[in-house]
Amino acid sequence: MAGVSFGLLSFILCLFIIITSQANGQGTIAFELSVQECDNTRGNYTINSTYHTNLNTLLSSFSSHAEINYGFYNLSYGQGTDKVYAIGLCTGDQNQVDCIGCLNVAIGDLTQLCPNQKEAIHCRGECLLRYSNRPIFGTVQNKPIRILPLTKNVTGSVDLFNAVVESWMTNLTRKAASGDSRRKYATGFTFAPNIQTINGQTQCTPDLSSEECTKCLMESMVRITQCCSGNAGGNVLKPSCRFRFDPLTYYGPTQTLDPDSPPPAMAPPPSPSTNKTSSSQSQASAGKSKTARTITAITVPVASVVLALGLFCIFLAVRKPTKKSEIKREEDSHEDEITIDESLQFNFDTIRVATNEFDDSNKLGEGGFGAVYSGRLSNGQVIAVKRLSRDSRQGDMEFKNEVLLMAKLQHRNLVRLLGFCLEGRERLLVYEYVPNKSLDCFIFDPIKKTQLNWQRRYKIIEGIARGILYLHEDSRLRIIHRDLKASNILLDEEMHPKISDFGIARLVQVDQTQAYTNKIVGTYGYMAPEYAIYGQFSAKSDVFSFGVLVLEIVSGQKNTGIRRGENVEDLLNLAWRNWKNGTATNIVDPSLNDGSQNEIMRCIHIALLCVQENVAKRPTMASIELMFNGNSLTLPVPSEPAFGVDSKSTNKSIEYSVDDSSITEPYPR
């Protein structure tokens, strides 16, 4: 009797929780979203027609494809105008049985909702079903779209919560987009301020490319953030992708994929007349394949172990100790050991000969940590050598930091590190030679700026954005540059931009959104105010610097000391004032009379979004990349910029660091 009472009490308690959670908008049941659409524009079919028969045959064939255990079906059946195409997709946590069950429910719903339409879409929580009389594989479908925010609101700072959501969901987007042709799916959770849990889920149909998947999901994030800021959850469903975050866990463990099994070629569904024959044949072959699998399951692991032991013994026998140069990096009381292979190390005499004894005629420029020289190796290769000054108080640390970062980074929009030299008190960095010096030598020179028409400037802006995105998201490390400026953007022979000078870059953890430092280093005018004042830096600090760079490229003006008659103001104030007054064309470089006004205005718009005072409102570099590529995407309205330069410093054209040790003077490298 006590057991019965306890069970009844548990049932009542569970029922109460479900009802309460639904009433508060917190339960997964209340948050389910589905999309059904019958497309009348693609034409209709008549009952019992050839198209109707082909459709029924195709939809009934999903369960016959036992070889598909990854939840993605791409099927077609029929000929000519009566051919039917279908796509079925399940979330990555659905096993094969549950996936087929979900698709069967969708099939039943669509046959009732769309009794004679040739194209229809059904999207629900766990699966998606599409069919059409046109090829739909490999095509992005953004409509119909359904957006549902969770009615529960966040606690504490909405801006901080939104920043965490944007960063976390961007990570999941990139993870999903990197999937193969069987699955593009990612889930995971993180914590927002006040220990608010954020469970995220991103998915694309695997027939999309990585770029198409990223764009589909990032557009979904833009839509949900525009409409539903402050909501603790959001759900966006489109035929080609799904995007969802929620405080409650609504997904299960992701089903494991066989890493060595590519998706099989999709065979046409069996016709109804051959079902019985194929069934008996499959049963006969099943016994043979089962025996073969048993033998394989025994022999393959044994052979693998024997082979592995043999290779390990050979490795131990032939292994020779190699000499390595070890460099220990220290900053803010954190130490990180790195080891650099000897193949990267240059002999000092080799560099001395290449630079003609570091002759002044080969000097390209001089920064806070030493001079930069051009040189030519014995094989004819031209190089740039950064020779750290011996009396630099931070030279050793900056040298170690730059080697640590640059040795692991490879991107067309980053200056490539060729090697280094450590000999006595000499510390040298050897880079690829970039012939056209730095961006500031062009855009701030009244003669040379004419060499940069709008098409070239726009490509430079895009290249810088791609380089920063690589640092923030795509590299093996997650890196915040902290000193992005025009003199640190070098231009190669084709005027492609290359980001340089990683002497003060900082490594951060993949899931870390911000960090603090006791030592503020950088350049006024480019530094975000939260970094310059409080030492708080994040990827959004680089976004701020990028926004300033874009305004400088568009206007051809330095960010400080702009004269307008008797008045002197900074570039951010000038851009914001003209933007509010509808006269943004006033800040455009007069030499850009050949450029697209729409592109120029869009760049100013994006730049103002980057330099907003509210850190959370600044876009990520992934969002910025989407803004450049998606001209049809509506941009949010920017808020007032952070005016980081006070009135006393606007007349100063020199650049300096907060701790009085100049990081980089305005000379090219």
What's the short story on this structure?
35% of the residues lie in helices and 21% in strands.
Proportion in β-strands: 15-25%
**Derived structural class:** alpha+beta
Determine the mean pLDDT: 76
Strand order of the largest sheet: 1-4-5-3-2
Which regions contain 5 or more consecutive residues with pLDDT less than 50? 1-31, 271-298, 315-341, 508-520, 644-669
Query: Number of helical segments?
Result: 15
Can you offer a commentary on this structure?
The chain crosses the membrane at residues 298-318. It is a single-pass membrane protein. It catalyses: L-threonyl-[protein] + ATP = O-phospho-L-threonyl-[protein] + ADP + H(+); L-seryl-[protein] + ATP = O-phospho-L-seryl-[protein] + ADP + H(+). Residues 260-272 have a biased composition (Pro residues). Residues 1-25 form the signal peptide. With 669 residues, the protein is an alpha+beta fold. The protein folds into 3 domains: 25-254, Killer Toxin P4, Chain A (2-Layer Sandwich); 325-432, Phosphorylase Kinase, domain 1, CATH 3.30.200; 440-629, Transferase(Phosphotransferase), domain 1 (Orthogonal Bundle). It is built from 15 helices and 25 strands. It has helices at residues 2-23, 50-59, 96-113, 158-177, 210-227, 275-318, 348-354, 395-406, 440-443, 454-474, 529-534, 539-555, 571-580, 597-610, 621-629; strands at residues 35-44, 72-77, 84-90, 117-123, 127-132, 146-149, 184-192, 196-204, 234-238, 241-246, 325-331, 334-340, 363-367, 370-376, 382-388, 417-423, 426-432, 478-480, 489-491, 497-499, 506-508, 515-516, 536-537, 562-564, 567-569. It has a 5-stranded antiparallel beta sheet. Strands 6-9-10-8-7 form a 5-stranded antiparallel beta sheet, covered by helices on one side. Strands 13-14-15-17-16 form a 5-stranded antiparallel beta sheet, with helices on both faces. A hairpin with a 2-residue loop joins β13 (363-367) and β14 (370-376). α10 runs antiparallel to α12. The protein is elongated. It starts with a helix and ends in a 40-residue tail after the last helix. The relative contact order is 0.08. Mean pLDDT is 76; it is low at 1-31, 271-298, 315-341, 508-520 and 644-669.
